[in-house]
Amino acid sequence: MRWWSIISLMFTIVGLGASQGSAEPVVANIDKLIPLTDPTDDWRVRTTLTGQKITMYGQVSQAFLGYDDGLVRNTFVPVDNSNASTRVGFLWQLYPVFGLNAVARFEGGITPRASNAMSQLDSSGSGFSFDGTHVRKLELILDSARFGTLSFGQGSTATDSIAEIDLSQTKVTAYSAVSQTAGGQYLRLANGSLSTLVIGNVFDNFDGDNVTGYNSDGSRKLRIRYDSPSFKGFKFSAAAGKDTVTNNPATHLDMALRYEGKFDKFQFSGGIGYSDHEARKVTSGSLSALHYDTGVNITVALGSENASGDYTYVKLGLIREIVAAGDTAFSFDYYDGKGLGVAGSSSRSYGLAVSQQIKKKNIEIFGLIRRYEYADPTNLYKPSVAVLAGVRWKF
Asked: Which residue has the higher pLDDT, 161 or 112?
């Protein structure tokens, strides 16, 4: 019933905008091709001998992580912010193929000390090694304004980020994947001993086929993907492929419907998707709304998996221009999961986040405090608290 409610709300939004006569549908931002650029500073762009352009893009996201498991406090610094991990990518504009705009893309993650990999037992991180698990995207993209977009190779499946649509401007630390902040930390039992469960095992946002685990690349595969042209703000996507990183032989199929629209006083973004990974069937989606005049925003995400549980995520936010440097955003969120990791279990989290934009430098200063609560039918666990603060620079 919850999914029909989301779909009905999305169509209601479109109907309201049309009746007002002032709606201005915009193209949904699915897997953005154009990176953040400043027209007065083209150091990221280079031209080849044949006249084609190669654009470098990416971000550096470093932070301090503190974690209190209810008995022992640990600090980890520096860490890579797994909510918005450090990465670098290259877009190579190719010659048209059969009249279609062609782009080759490579994107790799650089996360030597990921915040979701740190724990009470291991604070060393993974070092600066680079292997197949760090290849986020290696693909050829063929685009036509009339017929849509085809993508071949390693990259996002149709449902990647479907449960993470968020207009709050605090997504750099706080969104439906609440485990990304401290996913590798062990939960402590009420008797004072460490359990074998980590936060990432029992908190999940079911984004695409990313089931319980804390693998942030769960919805990137070696696949073929199609994205339709935008129609009144709606876009349909479908993909088929396999996970070559984990050598899982299962075929992944998924589809998603997204909507994005701007009206007189509001912006809406939403989507719903279904992922079939043979034994696993995942349904998830999210919806976010922003009121321009006040900066008030709300985000809702839902997800379920056939052999596991489900969750609900709600965030309330406020965006204000307190300083001239850029927007200041605040948010409070609540996550409620049932049956994740262990049947009959309960996973709850509360988060308070702040983010300050420095627009001219493409810098974002962020902070987060998050509480985790978990219980299952056989064990009692202590609540835990994570604190994350740092800086992200986009280029």
From this structure: 161
The ranges assigned to domains in the chain are 2-394
**CATH classification for the domain delimited by 2-394, as one of 3.90.1150.10, 3.90.226.10, 1.10.3720.10, 2.40.160.10:** 2.40.160.10
d(CA 196, CA 201): 10
At 19 the pLDDT is 35
List residues bridging with 166 in a β-sheet: none
- Burial of 322 per CB tally in 10 Å (0-12, 13-18, 19+): exposed
pLDDT digits (tens, 9 = 90+) for 50-81: 788 899 999 999 999 999 999 999 999 999 99
Answer whether residue 13 shows pLDDT above 50. no
Q: Which residues contact 305 (CB under 8 A, 6 or more apart)?
A: 206, 211, 212, 280, 281, 282
Q: What is the pLDDT of residues 296-340, one digit of tens each?
A: 999 999 999 988 899 999 999 999 999 999 999 999 999 999 999
CA angle 333, 170, 119 (to 5 degrees): 75
Strand partners, 257: 236, 272
Q: Nearest to residue 286, comparing CAs of 186, 372, 168? A: 168
What backbone phi and psi angles, to 5 degrees, belong to 136? Answer: -80, -45
Angstrom distance (rounded) from CA 235 to CA 261: 11
CA distance 346 to 201: 12
